[in-house]
Amino acid sequence: MMSGLHPTRKLLISTDLDGCLLDHHDYGFAPAAALLQKLEDLGIPVIPNSSKTLAELLHFRETLNNSHPFIIENGAAVYIPTGYFADKPEDCENIGDFWIKTFSQPRRHWLKLISQSRIGKEKFQTFADAALADIVKLTGLQPDAAARASQRQYGEPVAWLGTTAEKAEFIQELRQLGAHILEGGRFLHVSGECDKGTAMKWLVAQYLQACGAPITTIAAGDSQNDIAMLESADIAVRVPSPTHALPALEKARQVYTAARQGPSGWSESISAILANLNIK
After folding, report:
1. pTM of the predicted model as reported, rounded to 2 decimal places
2. Same domain for 165 and 198
């Protein structure tokens, strides 16, 4: 079995990427690189839990030498490397090198709903309608990275160009049509009734079944689409953003708020939690 968990340290970290583990502006993670290696050495899995696509997460995992499961497109699907656990979890498809658990209908379904909105198309831009150059401009990514970001499977990012009132009307329309809307750091994300918290809890249950002992979960995020994940974790880390307010949580205990933005704040907060848990 390759559960990745240390036999005595039953700890797992679920983390957002953009504006959290990755810098909001340049997508770098250098301030957290040493800690990421330490966590790997300690047998503490770091689970990317992001609005990013499969193509983006595969690239990210290779960059970090991360071999653990990951969650894509705001909880739309969990990807577990084949053989990571002793047995394939129920309700998972085996496609290529992964066991896949899906929580949302495919992208084409949500694009059809978006097309039914009464709000004029000049008020927003979907990735499906955007040229690669537009996605580069919207995300600040290099062209190769922007191409990976465009390969959506389960939902659709929408760049809002209209007023706040028009955005509220757009969201209400799509919700009435059955869509679930999450607001991230840069985009509205239109998909099914899924979120990072539901996907994380399902994955933690698979770890629990594999190791047979309670698991302490840490979640780190900076945006509204991270709230379900942060609320579901035993310990929540809120990382300040240069573009929006901290995610507002109902829980008050075991909530850390980083003093700095991006990977610097991520690293400081996770290090403080490890120290409090007497993990060195």
Report:
1. 0.89
2. no
